[in-house]
Amino acid sequence: MNRLPHRLPLFWQIVIPLLFVLTPLLRELRQWVLLIFSSF
Q: Measured in Å, how far apart are the chain's first and last C-alpha atoms?
């Protein structure tokens, strides 16, 4: 149990930048999906 608090900050240090990177990508993907569906 003592090791868990030490791992969590590292986990968040990895996840938070990933979220900042993935959020704009998800927005662009949503626009592409809307464009593809609107073309049909």
A: 54
Cβ atoms < 10 Å from Cβ of 24: 9
Phi (first) and psi of residue 2, to 5 degrees: -75, -25
pLDDT of 1-40, one tens digit each?
Answer: 566 566 678 888 899 999 999 999 999 999 999 999 998 7
Q: For residue 26, what are its two tokens?
A: 């998800």
Please count the other Cβ atoms lying within 10 Å of the Cβ belonging to residue 31: 10
Contacts by residues 33-39 (CB-CB < 8 Å, ≥ 24 positions apart): none
Distance between CA 40 and CA 17 in Å, rounded?
36
